[in-house]
Design brief:
alpha+beta, seven-stranded mixed β-sheet, 19 strands
Length: 539
Amino acid sequence: MYKKKVHLIVAMVMVLAFSTGCSVNVEEPAKEATAKEVIKDMKVRKALSLAVDRNAIVEEVTKGGEMPATGYIPPGVHDSKGNDFRETSGDFGIDPTGADAEEAKRLLAEAGFPDGEGFPTIEILYNTNDQQKAVAEAIQEMWKQNLNINATIANQEWGVFMENRFQGNFEISAGAWFGDYSDPMTFLDMYTSYSGNNVAFWTNEEFDKALEDSKILHGAERDEKLYKAEELMMGDSIVMPLFYFTSPLMVQKRVSDWEYTSIGQWYFGDANTDDARLVWNLSAEPDTIDPAFVSSKDGGHIVNNIFEGLMRETDGEYVPAMAESYEISDDQMTYTFHLRDAAWSDGKPVTAHDFEYAWKRAMSPEVASWYGYQMFYIKGAMEYYEGSGTADEVGIEVIDDKTLKVELAGPTPYFLELTAFFTYMPVREDIVEKDPQGWAQNPELSVTNGPFVISDYKFGNIMLRANPEYWNKDSVKLEEIEVLMIVDESTQLAALESGEIDVIETVPNQEIPRLLLEDDRFQIRPALGTYFYVFNLQE
């Protein structure tokens, strides 16, 4: 009887202990960390970055003359004193000659995963491309060898890939950025908290403030803010820079006077062939060719040939295009553009109102353009975009049909370069309103002011023809351009070598050594761009 009472008391105490959580320590199984959780740890991100041998990637995988990346901003961008920004900013502890496996292991252990124990399998997402696949496979093996962790790789077609990046449906994603103009800001401002291109979903008030302050400063003071901004983003390891781009191009000998700009945009307004016809492979289907919505290089290529902004890059220099002339105020805050006599492809005159409409459309909260933030250099543009200001408060004034006055929020030394960028191209209000989503791709509706117009638009094939109303039509020698979207690099190369295609912008990695030795149609151009992996920090 006594024993039964004791057992009963013990049982009651145990029940009470479990119900109150007080005195009995019962060990529960540890919850396994997920990939999305672990990459939010800066030590993990840093470890993953340091475990990569960037030199091996460019020497053994890409083989196109690329340089190992030690920071986000590529070489070729300069500060106010003419110093190369990359060289001055430093390497952030990244060894361009190899992986720092020991430091990577130490950081991973500090994060709670000694020798990779308990680390979840992470996924690398990339858009369908032979080179990107090879890079992902190399990094997958480096992480296994140097950190003892597993990674899977997944590819998606461009449109799906981009949508998933913008929606945050990834863990680690491949990314590439080419400068929209030659200034550090074109790389840094994509990671402000309000940028549509901030697919890291990173927010840092100090970073935002550094960039905002830089917009009202000059010279060394501005430089200091920009250097600080890169230090902040690299300090948080929100991206893992891998290499700085080059552009491997192949152009048939029969094509002359073609232009490939410093920011990697094709322009054929002066080009010529023996039959006035060009076949150009774009590689990827553009999501759109509406200047307000274009957010990728492929759509930008088309826009650059069918529209024309106030300025245009020619032979590395920015020269007046739709602007016949311009004046800049002494304080660098006001630009006055005088438009030349020019017409749209339907014969109606291009006016300053078309620029005002296009720019305010791109910055409007209703349109929510991915590149709307590129307008923030204009007074009141940010406030309008964010909903705290109105369109009437934006510093754009139409003096008359041929005169456009622009007031900036702060001195912007690269503003003229910006006016050559596709988001700054003019569009016609009456045309856009007929079909706001599809007007640009509809040959029966679209009107353009550049050297070419859309004559046919089908999935996988776009036809351009010379614009008879273009103000500089005498310089346009090509009558027709056929634009293809062959994704496979081997197929592209075979088509060019057989004479079916005139221009391609990518070739299989394994073919580069042969082409360098044997084919004078092949050339490697410098490119103002960085290839990187971005970590998803979305909460």
